[in-house]
Design a protein that fits this description.
Blueprint (H helix, E strand, L loop, with lengths): L5 H29 L8 H24 L3 H24 L3 H22 L17
Helix pairs in contact: 1-2, 1-4, 2-3, 3-4
Length: about 140
Amino acid sequence: MNQLSRSAGLKIAAVILWVIALLGIATVGIPFLTGARPSVDGPFLGLVIFSFAVDAITIVVAYGVWQAARWGIILAIIISVFNAILNTGGAIGDPNMAIRIMAGVFVLASLVVIYLCLRREPNSLSRPFETGVAK
């Protein structure tokens, strides 16, 4: 059975991040900010603007993950933790069932991204320790 390499896992994580960011911008950011959805006031408006900014940054972070850049992987983990926490509230408490399902999928996708960013090469743990001493 073929095992998923770290670089392939990071590319999958980058695609997931990119899709989450674009869906977040298309379904939350743009409709609220352009007035296509009912207006929001107070702290919720700040959360929408913050979420829109994070989604825009996530597109750049996805590129960093695709390139296996350390900064991209670190930011991807931070953003995925933020997305998982933020969307858990929507998955549990939103009255709209479609948004509940979408938020639940986002939580799962964020957890997958965290896993793919933190995992190591499949063979690295099973290789014997090499000291470099000739035998």
